[in-house]
Amino acid sequence: MNDMTANTATPGGTPKLSVRELSKRFHVSGGGLMGGEARYVHAVSDVNFNLDKGTTIGIVGESGCGKSTTARLIMHLINPDSGKISLDGDPVGADPASLKKFRRDVQMVFQDSSASLNPRLTIEQSIMFGATIHGTPKAEARKRSHYLLNRVGLDPARFAGRYPHELSGGQRQRVNIARALAVQPKVVIFDEAVSALDKSVEAQVLNLLNELREEFELSYIFISHDLHVVRYISDTVMVMYLGQVVEYGPVEDVYNTPQHPYTKALLSSMLSVDPDDRTDAAPIQGDPPSPLDLPSGCCFSPRCSHVADICRSLSPRITGTRTRQVACHLVDPAAGHPECAT
Amino acid sequence: MLQYIVKRLIYAVPVALAVSVICFSLVQIAPGDPLAVVLPADASQEIIDQTKARYGLDKPLVTQYFLWLGNALTGDFGISIATGRSVSAEIASAIGYSLGLAIFATLIALVVGLTFGLVAGYNIGKPIDKIASAVAISGVSVPSYWLGVVLVVIFSVHLGWLPAMGAGINEDAGLSERLSFMVLPSIALAAMPAGIVTRSVRALVADVLTKEFVNALRAKGLSEFQIFIHVTRNAAPTALTVIGVQLGYLMAGSILVETVFSWPGTGLLLNNAILTRDIPVLQGTTLVLALVFVLLNLVVDITQPLLDPRIKRT
Amino acid sequence: MTMISETQNKVQPEAQVHVSRGYWQTVWRNLRRDPVAAVCMIVLALIFAGAIFAPLLTRYDPAVGSIVSRLKPVGTEGHILGTDEQGRDMLTRLLYGGRMSLLMGTVPVLLALVIGGSLGTIAGYFGGRLNTVIMRAADVLFAFPSVLLAVAIAGALGAGVGNALVALTIVLIPPLLRVTESAATQVRALDYVEAAQASGAGSLTIIRVHVLGNMLGPVLVYSTSLLSVAIIMAAGLSFIGLGAKPPTAEWGLMLNTLRTAIYSQPLVTILPGLFIFLVSLSFNLLSDGLRSAMDVS
């Protein structure tokens, strides 16, 4: 299994996980019995990406940009308003059976290592739970849980019978990883899974994740606000702003030659020891606008230092090649109407 | 704020209607023919039908309900089977006594509860807190009807200080004599709310004292007394809210205590209605007391954010 | 970081696995170490045992008295706690009375826990419109003060233990519904429930494995304090002539019939109520003790 390269997408091959036009808005107020205009938050709009076998896609952006909602939509923990998700070519969500199978194939690790473990179950019971749901006999599930504990670096003799509150944050997150792997998934979603850990522990866990990806031929969706971590672990990166994808591409391409002003600004805020690494983009001004009251046109326009007239009136579509895309009028005049191009 | 009040008022209407439905159904769940008490046992079918028509009992249940509701809204709850007086007259002559008793008991509960709660909350963990807390939980746990009997044993039987029963309603009774009849039932009734107020205020004071701003006040050089005033002002809305709800419970919950002391309020009226199976009185009294309770809760809900600006209601 | 290679992955024998003390074992240990709670549990155990084993503890019949030995004071030879207005042995009546009073106080709480608890868990876990419907229905019953509703229902149905049980159960459902609903709503929002959903578990499995166990704490604390309320209300119904009927021994009913003896034998008169108070107080203190015993990480 050493054929892993940054982009394993073979032309014509079916990507492992395909997400198409995924959108969700939340009803906020009004429109009910009390009258008033119905108000919505557009949490996620029109997210598209492919995830190939053995690769990692990183999703970055400020808090509230829709990263976590995207993860929950993929898992169907929240029902999407629209969008198609398929795994190995099989569409998901049409019937309960396909959803159950999907939820075995795709697992999730959450940020809060403590809240994501049932305090009344032992470590072993927590890890076994998912497998027994899918019909694995108890004894086998226990054996596997001990194997996985070993694999994530926790001695089963010492940890299997303990309760979550007896473990450190890093140890709990290892348990959560073992729990996710217990059902033998194909894809694992990490939602800020290392963000709460100390830097040294974080590095250990990231190394572990890389090893596990290779050993179990996994694909990762790695959500983080930490740009360093995403660069370290991802093959592809997707930058989100206010629920929309603004830039997408191979991680080194995006980090070295960012095209969207938001990506540039985001990367410039990243501390770097290497002076050559620094971008010359202006830092982001102000706070993101309220998702309740999105600006007309490009939603980054109020904070963008290169804003043009068209940006304020027309929302740019994401354009580019299959592997490299950006949503900005200034980068690709075709993003808007051709006749509006400057 | 105004929107909250309007919303709360509108919400009270379906609740009040549902309460009336439950009160109406009390007659439906009562075993036996409601006409049995009105008609002689050998009444002919014709007379039975006539009487049914007169009371509207020949109509469908829903129609019966709206007829009953319409009458109730105009203050007509029917005729007491036991006394032959109108139910509304029976309630009118009794409700004042219950209200008086409930208010008196509420005042006792407020004074005792605030005092004990402040003392305990200020001395968390110390012996005096333990004593106050023990008294409070005893107050919450004591059956009011038994406490009434115990009070009578001590203050009427042994000491002979206070009257054991009745309301002292003879013509020439002075105010102090009338009040003396009220003391024991009020105390019996006040025990539980006093315990509840003590426990709420104690928890609140203990919580306020751990807050940053108290340290800030101390740092600013305020005296302990000034801080005490501050803490009290923070605790007062909670105490008032608890007490407002308790007043409603006392109005309706005094049935047992009124029975012990033969206090001529709605509780005794209910008790007599139960003994004589006087369903119209049972129904009417229950409706009035429940509506008073709904109203008091409404008042508490609306005044609470006015008293305590920290509570934001939407 | 120590990485364990594949060859070392042979799982150790089960016997060597360290097993920590579980949450409920810890709570139980804390509770036993709390002197007040321990005393309450002993008092309750004694009163319940006295009621259950009443026939073994006394040679008198609770329903049969003798006219010559009416209203004997406490401490009379042969009648250690005196006799009542019909010459029946008070100790015997108190032991047998415990059977009825404890039954009438505990059964409605258990029934209401099953009914209200199920509805509350469903409302809390599934949320949405189902929640609104269930909780609004509970609000209506909440619009009545509990004592009034119990008296009105029992009063309309007529005297009798069965009717009193029905009335008390109806009255106790809404508060338990609220407590379980809020507990279920809280647990439901936690990541481990979401994680369980993400592993493809069905709602019933998630409720059974992940929700119920984590709701149990607050619900248990509340139910224990509700037992105190129910004991007082149940005896209260018998006290005003609803519930148990003479000559049944029941604490509330005994208190009522003994009131005529308040001047001649005040001490005997207050005995039945003292037992109601003791049981009620013990449950309340136990509820407090349970709450602090659960205050563990």
UniProtKB/TrEMBL annotation, chain A:
Signal peptide: none
InterPro entries: AAA+_ATPase, ABC_transp_ATP-bind, ABC_transporter-like_ATP-bd, ABC_transporter-like_CS, Oligopep_ABC_C, P-loop_NTPase
Protein origin, superkingdom: Bacteria
Catalytic reaction equation(s): glutathione(out) + ATP + H2O = glutathione(in) + ADP + phosphate + H(+)
Compartments reported by the entry: Cell inner membrane
GO molecular function, one term: ATP binding
Subunit text: The complex is composed of two ATP-binding proteins (GsiA), two transmembrane proteins (GsiC and GsiD) and a solute-binding protein (GsiB).
Function summary: Part of the ABC transporter complex GsiABCD involved in glutathione import. Responsible for energy coupling to the transport system.
PANTHER family, per database record: GLUTATHIONE IMPORT ATP-BINDING PROTEIN GSIA, TRANSPORT ATP-BINDING PROTEIN
Protein name as catalogued: Glutathione import ATP-binding protein GsiA
Organism: Sedimentitalea xiamensis
TrEMBL record, chain B:
Keywords: Cell membrane, Membrane, Transmembrane, Transmembrane helix, Transport
Keyword Membrane carried by entry: yes
Keyword ATP-binding: no
Name this protein carries in UniProt: ABC transporter permease
Transmembrane stretches, start-end: 9-30, 94-119, 131-159, 179-197, 239-261, 281-300
ABC transmembrane type-1 domain: residues covered: 95-304
Any one Pfam family match given in the protein's UniProt record, by short name: BPD_transp_1
Topology of this chain in the membrane: Multi-pass membrane protein
Domain of life, per lineage: Bacteria
Compartmental location: Cell membrane
Protein family membership: Belongs to the binding-protein-dependent transport system permease family.
